[in-house]
Amino acid sequence: MCLGIPGQIIAITDPARQMAMADVSGVRRAVNVAPVLSGAMEDLIGKWALIHVGFAMALIDEDEAEATLQALRDLGEAQEALEAMAQGQKALEVEA
Amino acid sequence: MKYADEFRDPTAAKALLARIADLTDEIGATSEKPVHIMEICGGHTHAIFRYGLDKLTPDGVEFIHGPGCPVCVLPMARVDECVQIAARPEVIFTTFGDAMRVPGTKTSLLQAKAAGADIRMVYSPLDALELARRNPEREVVFFGLGFETTTPSTALSIQQAAREELTNFSVFCNHITVPPPIKALLDDPHMLLDGFVGPGHVSMVIGTHPYDFIAQDYGKPIVVAGFEPLDLLQSVLMVLQQIRDGRAEVENQYARVVPEHGNPVSIAAIADVYETRPSFEWRGLGEIDHSGLRIRAKYSPFDAEEKFGIGYAAGERSVQEPEGCACGAVMTGRLKPTGCPQFGKGCTPEMPLGALMVSSEGACAAYYQYGGARAVEPAE
Ligand code: SF4
Question: Mind listing the GO molecular function terms for this protein (chain A) (predicted)?
Fold first, then answer.
């Protein structure tokens, strides 16, 4: 939960809530982009960001994304983050 | 552990290791009289063990594992309070998975869930917000945990909840900040520290200036570092260079991600939603002044402590650590994990007694996972 994971912003989904869709290692996840927003939201599409618990915290370049992802895979943290995302999805679906 | 040959750039790794070895000699550091370098962040602790950097670097360099794993410094009383909130029938308690197995006085959140409490592991406070929207008749509580890397996420979520006027969402705030425990460690006369490797992702949020006091007031070098093995080696080298030159500065090895002044949106959100508590308890370290955050009065409807009248809102609390646990001594670098009588016996990653064994970023778990467990295997 402490290490961010790189993801690519692929679409803007909810401008009012500053939400976008990111592709994180092939998994789609809704993220908040407020911390990296400086101009129009659309400008973020295609960009890479370090994503911390659902928030894009810093824009990075593609090489940095690749290197970071490799380090996270080595540490087993990439898998952990992806599992946490799946769990988050499941938590929403559980019947109250 | 990996060998330098397996690094992404073995040539660069070997060159860095050679320079580190030369500098260690030049400084005159030996296994009897090592330089003590503390990596503050638990992610770095994990990486150091994973890549075997403690073994690849000379004996004259000794890593001290810092307090930078939020799960590991979570006091038992706070876990008890989580369990207490989660036991309320109207509550859906949401948490990062990392916190599920941290032992409380009686049970962990995992055990409480097995016993029937509605506890859900989420990836993000945004998931908790969504749960609140979908379940207006339930109270959704998010367990806000972590350093400055996760603090902006709960601050921004609370701001969003306020904008939407959600009345069934609150945060049980356990956010802590990095600089105060470093100051507490530097003030501890038993602590032997010659320099620091600073946290990368925390610094991405707060920038590098919050560490100025380490260099200016305590005369110690600090280098903010990335997570790849080359980043860590480079940063150790930079710390050693400062020591050799008699310099004490804040340097930024991870400038490609860490801006000098941090992330303005996150800093503003934190300042808007949170204020510093007079003191906050750290497991193994005790109460540390100004080291924790609480939700400001203007956002009190979103403060689970206020809503349920627990935690610091309930006044005095007392906590005992489990019998025979040496977490405090390990946390301050006075004892190696293997020196704890419980290590690998009463305390393993499967059945943790102390919090340092719970998260892969805890020093005990890292030791155990990457070979330290051998130390407790009975001799044939
Ligand atoms: S081995 Fe367990 S009890 Fe001992 S210091 Fe480590 S976490 Fe604490």
Answer: carbon dioxide binding; iron ion binding
Pairing mode, if any, of strands A19-24 and A5-14? antiparallel
Q: Six-digit token pair at B263? A: 């992330």
The model's pTM: 0.90
CB-based contacts of B211: which residues, under 8 Å, 6+ apart?
A: B179, B182, B196, B198, B203, B222, B224, B250
Shortest distance, CA B246 to any CA of chain A (angstroms): 32
Domain count, chain B: 1
> Total structural domains in chain A?
1
Cβ atoms of A53 and B95 within 8 Å: the answer is no
Q: Which domain holds residue A52?
A: 5-95
CA B263, distance to chain mean position in Å, is: 20
Residue B327 maps to a domain:
no
- Asked if B125 lies within 8 A of A75 by C-beta distance, the reply is no
Measured between CB atoms, does A92 come within 8 Å of chain B?
yes
Nearest beta carbon to residue A87 from set B123, B130, B149: B123
CATH number at residue A71: 2.30.30.140
Q: Which of B73, B282, B285, B325 to mutate to test the pocket of ligand 1 (most atoms within 8 A of CB)?
A: B325
Q: Is residue B365 part of a domain?
A: no
Examine residue B334 and state whether it is found in any structural domain, yes or no: no
**Cβ–Cβ below 8 Å for A57 and B50:** no
Q: Which domain holds residue B163?
A: 1-38+57-321
B360 and A CB contact within 8 Å: yes
Cβ atoms B171, B144 nearer than 8 A:
yes
Closest partner residue to B227 (CB to CB) among A3, A54, A88 is A3
Domain CATH number, residue B264: 3.40.50.11740
Per-residue pLDDT tens digits of chain B, which is 380 residues long? 566 676 778 889 999 999 999 999 999 999 999 999 999 998 899 889 888 898 899 999 999 888 888 888 888 889 999 999 999 999 999 999 889 988 888 899 999 999 999 999 999 999 999 999 999 999 999 999 999 999 999 999 999 999 999 999 999 999 999 999 899 889 988 778 999 999 999 999 999 999 999 999 999 999 999 988 999 999 999 999 999 999 999 999 999 999 999 999 999 999 999 999 999 988 878 889 999 999 999 999 999 999 999 877 666 555 566 677 888 788 777 788 888 999 998 888 888 888 788 877 788 988 888 875 444 443 33
